[in-house]
Amino acid sequence: MPVRIIVADSEAIFRVGMGKIFALEKDLEVVAQTETLQQTLSAVSDTPAEVVLFEAGLSPNPPDAVADVIRRAQPGTKVIVVAHHTGEEETVEYLRRGVRGILTRSVSPDLLVRCVRKVVAGETWLDNQGVNWVIEAYRSQAEQGTTPKQQLRLSEKEMLIIGGVTQGLKNKDIAIEVGTTEQVVKNYLRKIYDKLGVSDRLELALYSMHRRLLDGYVPPSGRENRAAPSPIGGESIGQTDESPAPWSDQTAKKQ
């Protein structure tokens, strides 16, 4: 079944252009087009879709509009913001509101298609500058934080799952490492998000790195083999050069 897309843009030329781009892809399908915020809110409420491409210019307050779209959308719908330009504050605020990708209106067709596929796969799409802004925002938040790490009361499985996310592992790979099912990992992630006050894998990974949640933590397998040499020459199993972090697009290529 193709990925269903709602294109919300005030300019007909962009709606038509995006429609033609997606029409060339067998796995992508535009199921609705809107040109106002009110039309968009109605469309996301009535039309099942995996992705909404939302033009920031549809509202004088795009972050609030995005939050309204996400609230009105059917479960599982992900929003990608398309804007002429986004600064540091807007980028961070969009992500906090639940946006899963940010594109400029000058994005090339191949990056547009790739962005949609990555977001549907559960990743967050940002360019290099956006990634740097988000990291800086969470570094500042971590420096201001006062909650002691020990008060978080994370369980063994939760620590294992956080470690997997930070390494860039997918849920099915984390499930294998933990010895459970992919659905159980998803359930744990929801609990972890609630505990730490984050909303997705990107925020969890950044929170973990800047709060140093995993400092000094050794997983059970590591405890058992701490004194024994690895049978594969000491190489760790986890993220490789070929497995990108879940919040980037293979090195977060600039659009």
Structure description:
With 255 residues, this protein is α/β, with parallel strands linked by helices. It is built from eleven helices and five strands. Strand 3, helix 3 and strand 4 (78-83) form a beta-alpha-beta unit. Helix 6 crosses helix 10 (201-211), helix 7 (156-167) crosses helix 9 and helix 7 (156-167) packs across helix 10 (201-211).
Chain-wise SSE layout:
Blueprint: E1 3-8, H1 12-23, E2 28-34, H2 37-46, E3 51-55, H3 62-72, E4 78-83, H4 88-96, E5 101-104, H5 109-120, H6 128-144, H7 156-167, H8 171-178, H9 182-196, H10 201-211, H11 220-224
Parallel strand pairs: 1-2, 1-3, 3-4, 4-5
Shape: globular
Q: Which range does the strand content fall in?
A: 5-15%
Q: In the CATH hierarchy, what is the superfamily of the largest domain?
A: Response regulator
Radius of gyration: 20 Å
Helix content: 40-55%
**CATH fold-level assignment of the largest domain:** Rossmann fold
**Count of discrete structural domains:** 2
Order of helices and strands: EHEHEHEHEHHHHHHH
List keywords for this structure.
255 residues, five-stranded parallel sheet, Rossmann fold, globular, 2 domains, alpha/beta, Arc Repressor Mutant, subunit A
Entry summary:
The chain has 255 residues and is of the alpha/beta class. It has 11 helices and 5 strands.
